[in-house]
Design a protein that fits this description.
Largest sheet: none
Helix content: 55-70%
Structural class: mainly alpha
Shape: rod-shaped
Length: about 100
């Protein structure tokens, strides 16, 4: 945000990708949700399971992380909107109330 703009409609892609990276790789919940992906990779080498199962679970893990982070980013974006200004109807708090007599 520049030039005195307090609220801007533009979002930087770097901030979104950094937050997504954080949600996918540094949160405990995300690592717990990636257990099926690691199990399919281990089963590929140990029992000969198709590698397509690993790629499918990897895609599901990434998609779930992206959807979760998009929801968080959307909620944060909606919460940052300032409330609309209400019209001041109090005649004593207006700037020129002395001139109205």
């Amino acid at each position: 945000m520049g030039k005195g703009e307090k609220y801007s409609g533009r979002r930087d892609a770097g901030g979104f990708l950094l937050g997504l990276f954080f949600c996918l790789f540094f949160r405990v919940n995300s690592w717990l949700c990636s257990v099926p992906m690691w199990l399919t990779l281990i089963l590929h080498f140990a029992a000969g399971l198709s590698l397509a199962w690993f790629w499918a679970t990897l895609a599901a893990w990434l998609l779930a992380g992206i959807v979760r982070y998009c929801f968080i980013a959307f909620a944060r974006w909606g919460a940052s909107v300032p409330p609309p200004q209400k019209e001041n109807k109090n005649p004593y708090s207006k700037k020129d109330w002395r001139d109205s007599d």
